[in-house]
Amino acid sequence: MAQEERADAARLLLGFERRFLAARALRSYPWQSLEEKLRDSSGSELLLDILQKTVKHPLCVKHPPSVKYSRSFLSELIRKHEAVHTEPSDELYQALAEVLTAEEPTHCHRSYLLPSGDSVTLCESTAIVSHGTTGLVTWNAALYLAEWAVENSAVFAHRTALELGSGAGLTGLAICKTCQPKAYIFSDCHSLVLEQLRGNVLLNGFSLEPSIDAWVQHPGPHTPEAERPRLTVARLDWNTVTAPQLAAFQPDVVLAADVLYCPETVLSLVGVLRKLSTCRKDQRAPDAYVAFTIRNPETCQLFTTELGQAGISWEKVPRHDQKLFPYEEHSEMVILKLML
């Protein structure tokens, strides 16, 4: 029984750790399970363990989440403790006091744990829509696509991937850390998104090529260091990019996540996919995968209709059960494989 209880406690700790590192909504935490555990004599010790796995986590100390988020989390943790125990927890109050005196920056960090034991840490805007773009934060479909990619690493292994609308960079960084791509091109069109993307690539221990031309002209020596993927961040405007410019990337795989948020972007995306269909490498067009959350069925219907008119067939990728990252459980997400 003791072993079973330890396993339950470990699962609970992991649930808190993953959610806090990724700064997920407080309502998503396993609070009910915590309340049940707090009624046991080991409850206070468990709270200290949670503190070490969240606010005091080495990743959070080095790359802190939003101050407001940490404050709300600690306040809720204290409420749960006080509902069961009359003795206050000095450690919890001290942690809260430290957060209360901290200033809220315009950017915060989120971290996502990978199966390898590594992690992806992102610097993101504290606002969902900032400077007129949604690309400064990570959306659910990016997490969903990253999970699928980790489970299907052969799609990317030793190949060149081009990501359209990379946003904060979660999907690409997860692929680069787990799937052994030969090269990865992050792309977006907003200058602040591109600046943040470059910062996130460097934050995760990668170096950046100055441009795509650098590795096309200079493939590099066969050394252990060369086994790491070659990365670049490219400005790519879907409305003005040309087929020859896309062909210069020499992509084997094209992917995009959560870019179907209005009819205008759908039309622009299909336009760039049509151009990519003419980019032949070894006599074949690149594989393509688009992931999205179904928010407005009409927008999704427009996407598949436009694909059909462009002569691009598609099929749904089977849902995967791998739940590596915390995101909204009730979100309906889809990955389409496109035949360019």
TrEMBL record:
Q: One biological-process term from Gene Ontology?
A: methylation
Does the record carry Ligase as a key word?
no
Q: Keywords in alphabetical order, please.
A: Methyltransferase, S-adenosyl-L-methionine, Transferase
Superkingdom of origin? Eukaryota
| Cellular component GO terms, alphabetical | protein-containing complex
Against Pfam families, the record matches this protein to: FAM86, Methyltransf_16
Question: What InterPro entries does the record point to?
Answer: FAM86_N, Methyltransf_16, SAM-dependent_MTases_sf
Show where the FAM86 N-terminal domain sits: 11-99
Task: State any single GO MF term.
Answer: methyltransferase activity
State the similarity comment. Answer: Belongs to the class I-like SAM-binding methyltransferase superfamily. EEF2KMT family.
- Its name, as the record gives it, is FAM86 N-terminal domain-containing protein
